[in-house]
Amino acid sequence: xxxxxxxxxxxPTRAYLSAALGAIGLSMLLRLFGKKDAAVFVGQWxxxxxxxxxxxxxLRPSDEDVMTNGHEAVHQASNLVTxxx
Length: 85
What we know:
elongated; 5 helices; mainly alpha
């Protein structure tokens, strides 16, 4: 049996975000066609989809080099600070 994270790896993050945008669009269409209750129901789905994407990003082991990215971010921030003074 697959673990939760293994199942999530099969679905790219963009799919969750696309599902959220699709639910927003579907909710708007339902509202336009007078299906207020259905529109509210579908309108509650996007936060769940976005939460799935966020959980995937937070819990997934990163392939990036954290130290290199951290040093680069500090360097860019220090350049911004010195440029403004």
